[in-house]
Each structure stands twice: as C-alpha cells, then as structure tokens.
Specification:
Elements lengths: L1 H22 L7 H24 L7 E3 L2 E2 L5 E2 L2 E3 L4
Antiparallel strand pairs: 1-4, 2-3
Keywords: Membrane, Transmembrane, Transmembrane helix
C-alpha cells in the first residue's frame, strides 16, 4: 500500500502539468521556467551522484546490522573493515 502512495506522489507533478496544459493549451512555459526546470534536474542528478559516491562502502567491507545489546540498548549498525 505504501508503494502505491509513493507511486501516486511520483505521478502527481506530471498529472498537474498535464491538467495545466489541457486547460491552457495556448500558453507556453517561458524560457526562464524551462531553464529553471533544467537547472533543477541537473542539480538533482549531480547531488544524487555525489551522495551515492560519498556514502558508499568499500567492496570488501562488511555491514553489521543494528542489534540489541546485552543491557537492552540498541547498538547501531556499522561497517567493519576486514583485516588486511
């Protein structure tokens, strides 16, 4: 069910744009709007790539998931580098 909501949230901007185009067929978006949209898409891609590179683990690293410690507290997940 959550995936369905996420899917509809993803489609919402496209549906709003289609409605706007349907009821305003003779009005074209200006060059500033198109430039701002292109800049937004470019920034989104740059930051997505940067984030993916900055949080990646080494290929031989081992991820230890969060666990419940002996005193009942949650020990957060961590990355363990193998001994070399």
């Amino acid at each position: 069910m959550v995936y369905l909501i996420e899917f509809f949230l993803f489609l919402l901007p496209f549906a709003l744009y289609a409605l706007w185009r349907r009821y305003n067929p003779d009005i074209e978006p200006g060059p500033r709007v198109m430039l701002a949209a292109a800049a937004g898409v470019l920034l989104m891609l740059v930051f997505a790539i940067w984030y993916g590179i900055s949080v990646s683990m080494a290929p031989d690293a081992i991820y230890v998931p969060a666990e419940l410690g002996p005193d009942g507290r949650v020990v957060p997940g961590r990355v363990v580098e193998p001994a070399r």
